[in-house]
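Weekly structure sync, notes
Attendees: PL, DS, HV (note-taker this week)

Item 1: Type II site-specific deoxyribonuclease
DS walked through the input record. Source organism listed as Akkermansia muciniphila. Sequence as pasted into the shared doc:
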Amino acid sequence: MDLFFNNNVTEGYKNHSQIARRLTEDWVERNMFCPICGHSVLNHYQNNKPVADFYCCCCHSDFELKSLKSSNKILSKKINDGAYDTMISRIKSYNNPNFFFMNYADGAVNNLWLIPNHFFIPAIIEKRPPLSANAKRAGWTGCNILLSEIPESGKIQIIKNSIVIEKEEILAKYKRTKSLLTKNLDSRGWLMDVLACVERLPNKDFTLNEMYLFTEELQAKHPVNTFIQPKIRQQLQRLRDKGYIEFLDRGHYRKL
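Item 1 (cont.): predicted structure, written out as tokens:
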């Protein structure tokens, strides 16, 4: 995998954002395999397809690329995306693409993450204020993707600090996350929220009482539900069944 951009593809371009998009998309087209099925190449959608940038011709997975010029070693907490209503609609229809998030500097890729589409829930999409009446697209409302709200299990690193991760490791990490896949949006939201809480606990072994400390936070995210603690226990059972935690004893668990 060649980490450097091909500057020849930007000949004739003057707009900085267009140059960045051309460089990064060309890099993906030349270097990336499908991190879902392992096929050796990804194809670029033509004519600016609104729902994705790339697709795999074997497993038919879609991918959208978001890039940021930065030498930062960590994933940004949030990143700008398109129209809020469009993004929410895509998530609710379970037709949203998988996302690549790229950091680059000095003409080369420093870090690249894959976030599978089943980690996207409405709660991680932040609505931006609408454009003012004087703006060219007055009233248009964009959104931010709150990457900090996504469980760490869903942030699969492909390139880390200019070091390429082994393909087999990437495929194995994605395969493990497939156990979390569910088409029920409410069920997906609860599972992701509780998994994120589990990952924030400092120790590998933890207790139910420690999980109950997140009750108020989860209540704010799910205001309609009035039985938060039973819901926490239910999601811990689901995470156990999916191989993310194990039960040690009554009220005691261990991260796997």
